[in-house]
Amino acid sequence: MRAASLTIAGGLAHARFSDLPPGTYAIGVFHDANANGRLDTFLGIPREGFGFSRNPPFHPRAPRFSEAELEVTGAAETTIVMRYLL
Q: What pTM does this model have?
């Protein structure tokens, strides 16, 4: 598992993970708006922005790995759209 804390500039944030071996990965992100180190929820509904690789449709659960998986064989790039529900 790899993690990064990013700065948002102009509504965008960029992360780069180097030296990943080829394989299947999934990415999950959240906007820790109050800087408490966790995704805040209300009755199980995220109160802060979140997103996953492949931008799967919203379900009242985290996506399955297969819904967010990315095959990495070399240099790869993806865009994750943030969702804000509350």
A: 0.89
* Residues 85, 82: Cα–Cα separation, whole Å: 10
Q: How far apart are CA 50 and CA 27, in angstroms?
A: 11
What are residue 23's phi and psi, to 5 degrees? 165, -170
Half-sphere exposure (CA, 13 Å, Cβ side) for 15? 14
Closest CA to 25 of 51, 2, 59: 2
In tens digits, the chain (86 residues) has pLDDT values of: 899 999 989 989 999 998 899 999 999 999 999 999 999 999 989 999 999 999 999 998 999 999 999 999 999 999 999 999 98
How far apart are the C-alpha atoms of 41 and 36, rounded to whole Å? 12
Candidates 33, 23, 82; CA nearest to 55 is 82
